[in-house]
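Late entry, written up from scratch paper. The run itself happened at the end of the previous shift, but nothing got recorded in the book at the time, so transcribing now.
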Amino acid sequence: MSKEEKNAVYIGRKGTMNYCLVIVTIFNKGENVCTIRARGRSISKAVDVAEISSRRFLPEIIEIDTVNIGSEELEGEYGMKTVSTIDIVLKRKTAK
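Output as recorded:
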């Protein structure tokens, strides 16, 4: 498992605050980058997690670096299905 994969948070069915606490833990361990990944209906929750983490929990420590959107084709019940994806990269702020 690469370091990038280790610091990836995959958004799913759990509560928003659970994912926020995972991100806080990652940055408290000294990591500099964390990626939030989501597909489909979980995209709005991923945005909420990124905003809550960067504005409420760690406003002086982290910021949103990049946001990548795209789509994936998955095999569904009735053939191929296109699902939207999002990757939100949070990074530690540099000292100014």
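The beta strands are 8-10, 33-39, 62-76, 79-92.
(Scratch paper discarded after transcription.)
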